[in-house]
Amino acid sequence: MKRFSVLIALIVLMLISFIALSCSFSKTPAGPPLKVQLGIDATYPPFELFDMNTKKLTGFDVELMNAIAVKANLDISYTMITYPNMLKQVAACQLDGAISAIVITDSLKQEMAFSDPYYTFGEVVVIKEENPSITGRDSLNGKTVGAQSNTTSASEAQLIVQKDFKPYQNFELAFNDLMFGFIDAVIADKPTALIYTTVPANKLKIVGDEFAKESYGVAICKQKADLAPRINVGIAAVKADGTLKKLEKKWILNGGQ
Known about the structure:
The chain is an alpha/beta fold. The protein has 2 domains: 31-118 and 217-250, D-Maltodextrin-Binding Protein, domain 2 (3-Layer(aba) Sandwich), CATH 3.40.190; 121-214, D-Maltodextrin-Binding Protein, domain 2 (3-Layer(aba) Sandwich). The protein is built from 9 helices and 13 strands. It has a 5-stranded mixed β-sheet with strand order 5-1-6-13-7, sandwiched between helices. Helix 2 crosses helix 8 (227-240). The radius of gyration is 23 Å and the shape is elongated.
């Protein structure tokens, strides 16, 4: 009986140790906040923008990063900078990191580290509401399809329709032509598509499934080895407590669902 009791006690002790160890990976890091300088290109709503009324940075990425900072015990300050220079400075460790709708790619991972993904999306097909002939990417053959040049959307459109692809300087011009009936469809990343399809007056809709999935992550200087795990703790926490879903709904990144 004594041997059995000792065995039970050992099992209980091991379980307590395991639970304590598991909690240590998810709790807010102790000690003073870690100061972090992040770059941001505040020209891509709804992810990041500069509110001229409040004179403050805002957007999905900003609110999310601020929530992550609380969970990960980080003291975040932002440097507004153009997107190409932002990536260069992270790669050179002139910035600790950056958050600015940065797609995690194999090429960028050669130059910088990344957090876990915090938002995953795909390309979608957008058409006029009264168009019954297009139901998704597989029904675009013979249709004129627009997208912003030098984007994943443009690459996907060219693969699908080839000579019937029409490039645009920006998505606003592409969606305007769609609304006026000059083209049959627009291929865009879902966050961009939702900006236009959630305005009733535009009379546009998304059809078919998402494709060519990509993910956004926080870019991190490779010399800041301690930063990625802390940010990942924060990302896991805001997913677990529902903050991420609330922000996606607020900034209409899931169609308001």
